[in-house]
Protein: 2-hydroxycyclohexanecarboxyl-CoA dehydrogenase
Organism: Planobispora takensis
Amino acid sequence: MMDGLRLDGRTAVVTGGAGAIGTAVCRDLASLGARVVVADVDEPAAAATAAALNAARPAPEAGAGAAVGGGDRPGTRPKGGPADGAGPGDGPGDGAGTRPGDGARVTHLAVDLADPASIEEFCGRVGPVDILVHNAGISIVEPFVTSDPAGWDLMWRVNLRAPMLLTKLLLPGMTERGWGRLVFVSSDGARAGSGGEGAYAATKAGLFGLAKTLAREAARANVTSNVVCPGPTDTPMLRRIDAEKPGLVDKIARGIPLRRLGTPQDVAGLVAYLCTDRAAYVTGQTLSVSGGVTMQ
Ligand SMILES: NC(=O)c1ccc[n+]([C@@H]2O[C@H](COP(=O)([O-])OP(=O)(O)OC[C@H]3O[C@@H](n4cnc5c(N)ncnc54)[C@H](O)[C@@H]3O)[C@@H](O)[C@H]2O)c1
């Protein structure tokens, strides 16, 4: 394998890790050697995701792979941080077969990103985090003029406020250890506009300014901050829309230069790359994974 693509010794948190794109991100990060925490409000789904990814994990290659819990490379040890062994395995919601002590590379920890107290509790229990993938997101689709401000508030809390608070709480550990990765999963809907998604797009567009500012503030500590924007991606969310409006998804796919919907794996590939040392010089960027729909 090309140098600089392994993540052995790193710990990654993936919010919304039990969802379609989140699961693909967890799989890729774990396959590169990271210890991964599936952070999701849907605890049974998070536990099932962690268990499935651990069960599907191939035997480690000789010489590759670090002990679970990591810390075998520069920038992974907290300076005066929580004691070794503290981490997701000690937190709430750890299911059978997903504890680090069991040799699990993927663990899970419940968090409700709409609730600041839950986020604070999560950050207090998760242990040192090197890679933070802000993937969770909710979308309420309705014409803007008839949309309900209660829905705006929920999307603001989950899609933008939660990434802000999580970063505020977890970035200091990355800067102290001198290495970190922040990846924000936004949406092409925020770059290009998307009918029925005014409030969603507003919250997702907020991530652009946040990520660029963090890229500047954290650069000297070797922490990069980037945004990944999926275009239409073949997920249960999109299939639900297709069930309501038959033919819409085919129509969308025909309008994509690469003539197909994206897959969760397409998105995960870019997220994973941004987390590696090969992407050490890429920061403050907003990149679409959309088959060419958005070219900027
Ligand atoms: N699917 C697409 O076509 C598409 C397109 C553009 C952007 N995106 C973005 O990609 C990301 C992932 O999308 P997906 O299609 O995999 O969605 P998904 O609905 O499959 O997964 C979202 C996950 O977030 C979790 N979640 C929701 N609310 C939460 C909360 N309050 N606290 C913690 N977790 C919560 C859900 O339980 C779920 O596991 C989202 O941010 C979405 O906005 C998706």
Observations:
- The longest strand covers residues 223-230.
- Confidence is low (pLDDT under 50) at residues 62-97, 99-103.
- The CA atoms of residues 126 and 148 lie 35 Å apart.
- Residues 16, 18-22, 40-42, 45, 111-114, 135-139, 158, 185, 187, 230, 232-233, 235-238 surround nicotinamide-adenine-dinucleotide (CB under 6 Å).
